[in-house]
Structure formats: C-alpha cells, structure tokens
DNA sequence: ACCACTAATGTACACGCGTACATTTTCGCA
DNA sequence: TGCGAAAATGTACGCGTGTACATTAGTGGT
C-alpha cells in the first residue's frame, strides 16, 4: 500500500485541494485563504512530504547550484590549503545564505577546459573559478562564457585585456606597502621572490615592489629577483642563493610573494646560517595562519580571502551592488583592500 | 529563429531518426546500426547538442551528486584545513572517476541535523559526513538514515553501539606506536594531551596510549593527562602547566592527539623555557604538512586521509570490495593503517 | 519464396513540479 | 438583492529525458 515517497498529489488529496494549491502554499505564491494554507501545511506535515528537488529544478530550469572550480593535482599541494579553504568558506557560507548549493569540481591541469558545457548542461546556474592561470586555452574558455552570457566570476586572477568578471584584492598596494615597510626599516637591497607570471598576482606584486623602490629612489636590481612557484619547496630551493647574497651584503631584506615561499625560505636560510629577522628582514604575503606561529613571527600582508569568496557569490547571485566599472576600459575594477601585518621577521632590523 | 538551447528533438530531426534513437545512441543503449549511430553523433556534434542534466536527473531519478557534509563555523578554524582538504581531495578525485559530482554542504553546529531530508529531496544519491561528533541528535539523524536505507558513510568517527557505515583509521595502533616509541626513547613519564571524547578518535588515542603504557609496566598517571579541543590554541593554553611539570621532572615526554595541538604546545613550551626535543620529547598526530617544517621537526603519526576519503566514496559508489563485517557485532570494522613518523622532536632524547 | 526470429527503430508516456489560464467563490457597494 | 471586481482555487499542460512496448527491417534456413 505504502508505495514510494510521498508526492504532491497525496498531500492535495489529504488536504482536499488541488495540486496547484499545494504548490502555491509551499512556494508562497499567489493569494491563499488562511484556512486553506493551514490545511495544506498540516497535510504536508502529517505525510512528511518533501518536494523532489529534481523535479523542482527541472520545472524551474534552475539547478540551484553554484559551481566552484578548483585546479587540482592529486597529492600535489601546489596551492596553499589556507588560501583555498578561506575562499571556499566565504563562498559556501554566502551561497547557502542565498539558497544555493555548492558544486565543487576539481580540474586537473591537463584536462580540457569546457566551462560552457557545464552551463549548457544546466549543472550550475553560476560558477566561480579559483586558481586559474593565464593561458590561451583558459582565455578561450572564459571568453566563450562571456559571449554566451553565463554568469561566472574569477577570484584573485585577472586576465589583462579581457572583461571577465573578477573579484580581486589590491596586490599592487599590498606589495607596495610591504616593500615600503622594508625600506622604512632601513633596508635598501630588497630581494624579491616572486611567483610565475601566469598569475596576475605575480605581476601585481612586482608592480608594487617596483613602484615602492622607485618612490624611494632605489632602482630595481635584476640580480636579486627570484622566481618560485608559490610552493614552500620553491622558497626552500631559492634559499642557498639568497643566503649567499645576504652574506655578501648584496641583500638585506627579502619580500616573498606568498607566505609558503617565505616559510620555505626561512627554513632554508637558517640552514645556511642566516637568521631571518636578524641577518636580513623577511616579509611574506597572504598572512596565512602559520605566519603567526613561526620563529620569528613572519611579517606578511593580510588578504581578505574569505570576503573575496563571499563577494564573488554576491556578485553572481545577490544583485545588491552593481560592479564598479572603469569608464575608459569598460572593465570591472573593484579590488578589496589588503593590510600590512608587520611582525618580528621584519621589525627591529638594523641593516649593516 | 534560433530559439533557446538545442534539444534532442532537433538532433533527431537533423539525423532523420526518432528521439528515442538519439537517446539510445547517446547513452549507448540497445542495438544501433553503425550508420545510424554515426548520423546521430554527427548531427549532435553539428548542432553542438548537450543534454540537459536537469532533465536527465529527473528522468533517471538520480541527482548524480555525492553529498559531503562538513561542520563549519565561519572564520573559526577549529579544524585543520589539512585534515579536511586531504579527505576532500580523496573524495573529489574518486567521485569524479565514478561520474559523480560533489555537493559540498557546510553545517553549522547549532543547525538542526536533518540528513534524511537531503536524501528524500533527492539532492544527493549518497552522502559522506566529515567531522561529526558523538551526541544524541547526531546519532538520531544517522539512525534515521540507516533505517531508511540511504547510502551514507562516516569518515574518521565511530559511534559506539551503532552500525553506521564508517571509514576509519587504526588510531589505537597509531597511538600505541607513538607511545611505545616514546618509551623506546627512554621516557616513562609520558603526558597525554587528548581531544574531546565526543570524537571516537580521542577515545582510541587514549586506548592506544594506555595499552602501550601497560605493556611496558607503566601505569597511567592522571595528573599528566590533559584535554584540549584539537585546536592550536588549546595546545598553547596547556603549555604553562605542562612546562611546569617538565621542570619538576614529572613529565619527560608529551603525546599530543594531533599536530595542531602539538604545535601550539611546542610554541608555548618554548615560551616557558622548555626546549622540545631536548628537555622533553614531543610527538603529535596526523603528520600534517607543518610537522616537517617546525624546529625541531615534529614526530607524528601519518594518517591516510586522502585514501580514507577515496575509500568512503568507493564504499558508497563502487561495489568493488564488500565491507569487512565483524561476525559478532555485525558491524563494519575495516580500519586503514597509520604509520609512525619519528622526527627530531622525539629522537635522540635522553631522559634525566 | 516463405517463415521465424532477431535487430533496429519508432511511438507513447511517465517522471513531479511550476504556472498560465479558466473557473468559481467571495465581497464590497449600489 | 444584484453585480462587478478581486480573491481563491482548479484544470491543463509543458519542461526534456529515459524507456517499455509496438512496429518494421533484416537475416538465415528450408
């Protein structure tokens, strides 16, 4: 007798109304007599009725899903878990508030980008891309989205010359502040350990670094520019060379483009007899959790990752604040502020 | 003319076949003449047809989603991101391989547990719960799932007396190994900083600790048992008292139930003039990334979180290996092995 | 050439909801 | 009391697939 799950029809019968009325009551649509509403709700309650999300989505032509795409290589931790988990949290909490579910999709680097298909399959109503890198295939895939007018948003990565919706932080200012801070501590031979230029982040960091030096009459010294890949290991690998230069007094401070590289560097420097914070100032970027717990504590630049994730969702779902558009280029230019967090690794440093 | 997305009907018309044939070709169902298949595929290709996942899900009565539930408090990082991101990776990669999408759901602690509703709404076909804690409401919600025969799986948490499907690691052995290792280093006053007993993990850790002591003729000293909440801060907070006991020579080693507490403790001990690895041996648990980068490097117990996530998915989706059932209790008892990772924080230690 | 059987394809409908439109009820007001 | 308008409810159908069943085409054996 008791066959399968309860459906709208049974609720309608029990309440003595039509299916449409049940639907209207449950969706709060149209005028309903109070007594009818109560009868329907009671019937639904009594039968423990739960509408089928599948049927709803189909009827509404909306999945109710917010896609989140994360680049991923199993067991290889190129990215900071801090970085992603903060952004993801911001996305998740905000999406939930807006009544959306979060569809998480890992994307391996060699996998073909076909974001458009995701939308056309109606798996997601909107999509956020994390950790994208500049490249022709990526640009193509994103251009397609733009052209087909699918709602998407990049986080913390800009594609120069494209009008992709993006949530960014002001890394030029952040890097400027970090560099200026080091200069303020008396340093004038500031090495820069940057990440790959496929990330707009890297270009921005360099820009801020360069400007801060220029504003203080210091010229960029190509010999003390280094490149890693944002991994801890790459910081560690850069250590020997940087340690040598510190000993030769060709470097008196290091600005690392993220904390992970800074931490690898910190460890590596120490193994080469350099005491960070004493023999050379050190500052990282991201203000990850670990920065507070190293010895010496690591100066850094705090980036509102959580808020960036939340902002990306609001931009896509909520229709609160319209984007800030650059009148010249027509591009969206809002950037969340970052904040310098000076700690022991760059304070009380006396250059030789 | 070009109205909305391409549908099956148009593909059928272009290929000169019925809609059913298109469906059969695309799903690889039933016998199809090779020439027909080619015509259909070409038509689909030419029209750039993509089936509606919404309609497919509705027709199949399957969402194709694997739910993942994570306890969450915005901006409060009670849990290790390492822990979750590892498990999540294992889940994501395996689910993808099985053709499932991952529906990530944050659950705030005060939120009412209603996992059953999730299934009855057909939002997910199966579900994995992470970070659950023992408690009556949780048990009730899970019992409901069991009774309604929804496929779900817990990871790294056991509910004593319940037959919930679970993927666990052998933390009794791991803790035994950690404690025995400390004893092997010559320690016999081993403090234990455990987590809350709402986690079966904590009980298992204590069990292993206790057994290792017993097997070596050492009795448990209640005075050197401490409780934190697995956060770094709680380790830090326990530091003063533990530092005092070390100075009094009432403690010569500390086993912390996870790395985060061990790291907080490490920092705190040092601030109280105790040098971990010299004045007292220290070992953590989880073998998180940071363990390799502390000074001294932190001994720990490696837990295959990634594999646990993958195993949970296989258990739910793949039908490869049947569960290992305890013939007595009827409960599932498979536990993945863990591995002791001795490092400087507990090696070459000479007790006084 | 005929039959029996299988392969290949078509026809028809269910799935459970949202909602446009039709219909009935209610209600204010003359 | 009657009447028009608004409120409340019902009827009917579309959404795009998967698939059971009906139908037709093909094949091999006699």
UniProtKB/TrEMBL annotation, chains A, B:
Keywords: DNA-binding, Transcription, Transcription regulation. Residues 6-60 form the HTH lacI-type domain. Coiled coil: none annotated. One of its GO terms (molecular function) is DNA-binding transcription factor activity. Pfam families: LacI (PF00356), Peripla_BP_3 (PF13377). PANTHER family: HTH-TYPE TRANSCRIPTIONAL REGULATOR GALS (PTHR30146:SF109), LACI-RELATED TRANSCRIPTIONAL REPRESSOR (PTHR30146). This is LacI family transcriptional regulator.
């Amino acid at each position: 007798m008791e066959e399968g799950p309860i459906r709208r029809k049974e609720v309608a019968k029990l309440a003595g109304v039509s299916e449409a009325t049940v639907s209207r009551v449950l969706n709060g649509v149209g005028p309903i007599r109070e007594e009818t509403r109560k009868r329907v709700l009671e019937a639904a309650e009594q039968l423990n009725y739960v509408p089928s999300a599948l049927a709803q989505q189909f009827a509404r032509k909306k999945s109710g899903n917010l896609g989140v795409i994360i680049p991923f290589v199993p067991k290889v931790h190129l990215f900071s878990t801090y970085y992603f988990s903060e952004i993801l949290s911001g996305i998740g909490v905000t999406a939930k508030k807006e009544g959306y579910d979060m569809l998480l999709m890992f994307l391996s680097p060699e996998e073909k980008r076909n974001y458009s298909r995701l939308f056309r399959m109606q798996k997601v109503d909107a999509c956020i891309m994390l950790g994208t890198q500049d490249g022709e295939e990526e640009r193509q895939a994103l251009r397609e989205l733009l052209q087909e007018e699918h709602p998407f948003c990049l986080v913390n990565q800009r594609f120069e010359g494209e009008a992709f919706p993006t949530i960014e932080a002001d890394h030029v200012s952040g890097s400027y502040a970090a560099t200026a801070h080091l200069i303020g501590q008396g340093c004038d031979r500031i090495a820069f350990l940057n990440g790959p230029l496929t990330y707009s982040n890297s270009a921005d960091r360099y820009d801020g670094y360069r400007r801060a030096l220029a504003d203080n009459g210091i010229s960029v010294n190509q010999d003390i520019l280094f490149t890693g890949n944002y991994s801890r290991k790459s910081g560690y690998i850069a250590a020997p060379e940087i340690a040598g230069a510190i000993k030769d007094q060709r470097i008196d401070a290091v600005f690392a483009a993220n904390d992970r590289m800074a931490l690898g560097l910190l460890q590596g420097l120490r193994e080469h007899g350099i005491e960070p914070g004493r023999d050379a100032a050190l500052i990282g970027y991201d203000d990850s959790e670990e920065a507070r717990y190293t010895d010496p504590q690591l100066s850094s630049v705090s980036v509102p990752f959580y808020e960036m994730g939340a902002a990306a969702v609001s931009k896509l779902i909520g229709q609160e604040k319209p984007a800030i558009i650059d009148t010249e280029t027509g591009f969206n230019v809002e950037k969340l502020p970052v904040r310098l967090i000076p700690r022991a690794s760059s304070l009380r440093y006396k250059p030789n």
